[in-house]
Structures are given as C-alpha cells and as structure tokens.
Amino acid sequence: MAYGFIPIVHIVAAVFSIIELGLTAYVASAYHSLTPYMGGYSPSRVNFMIFNSIWSLLVLLYVGLTPLYMTSVFHRLAALALNAITAIFWFAGAIALAVFVGGPWDCGANTFCGSIEAAVAFGFFLWALFTFLTVLDAIDSLRSRGHTVNKPHAYPGA
C-alpha cells in the first residue's frame, strides 16, 4: 500500500518528539535546580517521557529511513512491532505524566507549569500519531501476507 502521506506523518512525529524532548528535559532540569532538598532528582515519569522521545526518534529513523537506504536490514513486521511498542510507551507515559501533574492548572507566566502541561499534551499527540502508524502498518501487513508464488509452467514437449 503506497500512502503518500506516511513520510509526512513520520516528519510530524519526529518534530513532536523533539519538542517533547525539549519540554521534558526542561522539566527535569527545573526539578534538579528547584528541589535540591529532594536530592535534585526528577520524577521517574518525566524521565520515562525523555526515554520515550529518544526511543521514538530511533524508531522513526529505522521505520522511515531504513526502507529507503538499507532495504536488506528493513523488515516490515519489525517495523510494525516497533510502532506498536512505541504507541504503548507513549500511552503509558502520557497517562502517568497526566496523573502526576493533575490539573489543568492556570499556569499564567509560570514556565515550569506550562512546560509540564505541554509535555502531557504532546505525549498524547505522539500516542495518537504512533497508533495511527501502527494501524496503517498492520493493515498493510495483513493485505500483503497472502500472496501466492507463481510456479513456472512446464512447456509442452520439454
């Protein structure tokens, strides 16, 4: 199935992952500088969202670029599994961060509050994008699984 919009979805997901990485890295840095009495450690939910962002960029590199430049390394079912795992990661991370934040809060000019709420929103956007990519890959895999191999016919008199 040749969908022309799939590379656009990959690019949007990569841009959103970079935005999410910046937001969650800022929140982790703010925890480090604002809470020295707690040891300066950021919450595990924030760290998991940083992991999700980096993981997503690596998955997008494999799913988006490998079929174009290194076709011998690309496998369709591996791409489907990676997209499904990434969608599950984003769902789990976005829910965990949303529960941690609570809210919605009126942040005003508080950049920490606005950043963590934006990180929740982008987490759900990325979950939707990777779920969409997973569904399209699953449909493509199901449609292409039943191909038959044409056997060469014996020529008469051969």
Architecture overview:
The protein contains 4 helices and no strands. It is elongated and about 60 Å long. Helix 3 runs antiparallel to helix 4. With 158 residues, it is mainly α. The model has no long low-confidence stretch (mean pLDDT 84).
State the helix count.
Answer: 4
Mean pLDDT: 84
Number of strands: 0
Helix content: over 70%
- Using only C-alpha atoms, the radius of gyration works out to 21 Å
Distance between the termini: 39 Å
In short:
The protein has 158 residues and is mostly helical. The chain has helices at residues 6-34, 44-69, 76-101, 111-143.
Q: What's the arrangement of secondary structure elements?
A:
Layout: H1 6-34, H2 44-69, H3 76-101, H4 111-143
Please give a handful of descriptors for the protein shown.
mainly alpha
